[in-house]
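Closing statement on the 2-phosphoglycolic acid sub-project.
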Amino acid sequence: MKIFSAPDYTAMSRKAANLISAQVILKPDSVLGLATGSTPLGVYSQLIDWYEKGDVDFTKVRSVNLDEYCGLAPEHEQSYHYYMKENFFKHINIQMVNTHVPDGLAKDVTAEGHRYDKLIDSLGGIDLQLLGIGNTGHIGFNEPSESFIKETHRVTLKQKTIDANARFFASKEEVPRYAVTMGIGAIMGAKKVLLVANGAGKAEILYESLFGPITPEVPASILQVHPDVTVVGDEAAMAVIREKCPSAID
Ligand code: PGA
């Protein structure tokens, strides 16, 4: 595992965007696993900049997103379909037909999970998976639980996650209680994983995930056994790692 500490959010975003653009330049038809939330916004905006300058071309890229809220239509402003379109896809030359987000409106979420996992397989798996980390230690919406769930599945969001995401909705009551998320299997099957984290609120959970016991109670801890993980955090997110394991930082 490589752990990089960036001086601030902009530098964190630039470093992560660099790794993604290198992936696309080296393999133009890469399958990118993409993430939502506040953290990756700077990564997308840096990639858009480089696309506009002609440095990176997304024509052949395929993408699979981690998750979607159950019950939100793609046009809903808080859906992850909408987020991806507004914050990334509409600004670059990716073909929309090559972009995939789980269907939050699926009546049968188990069937949707099978469809999504098969889709990922049919694309040849994920070349590079971008991840944020929730303050519960979730990756995608894989919340703490008694076991790691491999398949794409429906998850009940933890109160902590609902509270954290309420900032995007008019009220806490409007935050969906359920989501459909890629499971740990597809994430761990990615050839490369790139995790981004910023802010002091992530410092403890980041340390616990990367250096604590591997347990489904801290879903991101499974990344300790992935062969190719890069973590990029800003100073604040890196604070506990810097204090307890300074030599782990590259
Ligand atoms: P955030 O969310 O980037 O908005 O903090 C991260 C996550 O929940 O994965």
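The chain has eight helices and ten strands. With this model delivered, the sub-project is considered complete and its resources will be redirected to Aim 3.
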